[in-house]
Design goal:
Blueprint lengths: L1 H23 L6 E4 L2 H12 L4 H15 L9 E7 L6 E6 L36 H12 L4 H14 L1 E2 L2 H9 L1 H6 L1 H7 L11 E2 L2 H13 L2 H4 L1 H13 L6 H6 L3 E3 L2 E5 L2 E5 L6 H14 L7 H22 L10 H5 L1 H9 L24 E6 L5 E7 L57 E4 L3 E5 L7 H13 L4 H6 L3 E2 L7 E3 L6 H9 L4 E3 L8 E6 L5 E5 L6 E4 L1
Parallel strand pairs: 14-15
Antiparallel strand pairs: 1-9, 1-18, 2-3, 2-10, 3-6, 4-5, 7-8, 8-11, 9-10, 11-12, 12-16, 13-14, 16-17
Helix pairs in contact: 2-3, 3-4, 3-5, 5-9, 13-14, 13-16, 13-17
Bound molecules: 6-diazenyl-5-OXO-L-norleucine.
Length: 557
Amino acid sequence: MRLYKAPLWSLIILFGCYCQLWAAEKPAKAAIASAHPLATQAGHEILRKGGNAFDAAVAVTAVLAVVEPYSSGLGGGGFWLLHRSSDGFQTMLDGRERAPLAAHRDLYLDEQGEVVAQKSIDGALAAGIPGVPAALAHLTENYGKLPLAELLKPAIEIAEKGFAVDDYYRRMASWRLPVLQAHDASAVQFLLQGEVPPVGHLIKQPDLAATLKRLAERGVDGFYRGELAQRLVDGVRSAGGIWTLQDLRDYRVVERRPITGHYQGMRITSAAPPSSGGIAILTILNILQENNYAELSEPQKTHLLVEAMRRAYRDRAEYLGDPDYVQVPVEKLTHPLYGAGLARSIDMQRATPSPKQAERSTAEGQDTTHFSILDREGNRVAATLSINYPFGAGVVVPGTGVLLNDEMDDFSASPGVPNVYGLVGGEANAIEGGKRMLSSMTPTFVEDAHRIAILGTPGGSRIITMVLLGILEMANGRGPEAWVKLPRFHHQYLPDVIQIESDALNDQLISQLTEMGHNFKPLKNRYGNMQAVVWHKSTGQVEAASDPRGVGMAKIE
Ligand code: DON
């Protein structure tokens, strides 16, 4: 008998230990940080109903599409970075817009071959084929636990009952007032008697509610085929666009392997092409690591960081584009040895000038959106979504409630000609029918020995450096409250200036860097709207923070 008892007891003890370990492997609470309180609340409501982080991500995406029409929407696209706790599987859902099949590289050029910038920003010709509706269906079917109809309920209800205009909405609508006024369906949906509505006015979107219901009932086909697809194509074409039914029918979400790498014992998991974010962040971190960034004096640190940014954005312009159309040298650009080579090209006493080229003043804003979610199982979502410029192309397709994106501006319309964010590009990101335009959206996970972080932000070309500064703050031991409010600076190769928020660098530092040959551009507005969640693995404690620059809400429950 004894012979049998000993192994049985040890098995019970072993099982107990395993359960304890397992318990410590889970967060004590769930957390959601998003750019709007209604979206954060909707996500928690879904978690309370038994949904997982992926279900909550569907609800949050859909609510943001209703309450932040200046940032994202069914007419837009995005990237959802996922981590499934049961098996550690990680993937990036690429729901980025595609160029319509009829698009070509001269789409935005006039007869003299000059870029007509406004054509890729305002109006239906600026719109790529949306990916958000397909991504909502894909996320639900492949990763969620609850039905799509349940997950879309909060968004449908808000679209029907309305949400209240706040100062932030007024600022964004004022910015885009002329284009919203120029399209009747946009004016009806977003303005009041043709003007920016007052604070407290309810924005009701019955057509959008009907489109969401159609998606809830029929899934992806409810949007990309049949009556709604026909309405979208008719509406786009009569407003000067080039969409076809085939464009909508052919749209697919692609799952991509995230970009991964290490910095000072932290594992970084970030967005893969057609985003430039993950690659650029790793290039920069590899350069910093090579030059012992953490050990340097303040001016040397800032100089090195700026020079690393400059080089990563130069490579972005040269090499990056849709991986289904061009070969992106991911291995090379993210390899520590490549970073070491770039580090050697940096003069630690002098700025390396970028070549002189046409410059365009860069847009400053908080349009586009990000949310971060952690559930009690440890599932994670970091998602950055966009319709590009505030209120996208400014065109609501009549009878659909769908506001078109102007993401086509993220292509390089002509080699070396900057887009609305001042970014240049070439062949790799040239316009081609069916191709996805290069993005800077950078949903990211960072893991060190004690913490797992989920973060991201909007901010056009500055997204990448904002996430980078967040990662460096984390490496410094600071928490998410510090990362989201940190004053920011940025360099993107061209234009050759360090763009700074008013309080980002002190006067002494600025004069030291000016001596080294750097140029500065103080920004009028603050930028970014970071949403971050952190899980402390050893204690199970959870933190969440929402950027004070926006109106978002971080909630732990
Ligand atoms: O995908 C991109 O990189 C851009 N369309 C993102 C735009 C953006 O973040 C605007 N926010 N200021």
